[in-house]
Write a structure and sequence with these properties.
The strands form two sheets. The chain has a six-stranded mixed sheet with strand order 2-10-9-4-5-6, with no helix packed on it. It contains no helices and ten strands. The protein is mostly beta strands.
């Protein structure tokens, strides 16, 4: 059974940082690319960042200079370090397996102005 469990969300002031974590199980983690998405109220879910099995990363343009996605294959974990947070970053953040229909339950990030 595939499980993805996000953690690390919370309330932070604008300009602050958060580090999200996603613990995975039930998949051969090292062969899969992983991604972080987010969904704000009233908006569609959008891709924030992805990392392939070799560690190559890709970011949405608005997050390119602020967010860092990383992975630890030994721990089957993927992370998203978010810096210089803005109120518009407020959303539920989800991790997912690229190319497979596996998603976590999400973690809420709220950025106050």
């Amino acid at each position: 059974q595939v499980q993805l469990v996000e953690s690390g969300g919370g309330l932070v002031q604008a300009g602050g940082s958060l580090r999200l974590s996603c613990a995975t199980s039930g998949i051969m983690f090292r062969i899969y690319g992983m991604a972080w998405h987010r969904q704000a109220p009233g908006r569609q879910r959008e891709l924030v960042a992805s990392i392939d099995s070799r560690g190559r990363t890709n970011y949405a343009d608005s997050e390119k200079d602020r967010f860092i996605i990383s992975r630890d294959n030994a721990k089957n974990m993927v992370y998203l370090l978010m810096n210089s947070l803005k109120p518009e970053d407020t959303a539920v953040y989800y991790c997912s397996v690229l190319g497979a229909p596996f998603w976590g339950q999400g973690t809420q990030v709220t950025v106050s102005s």
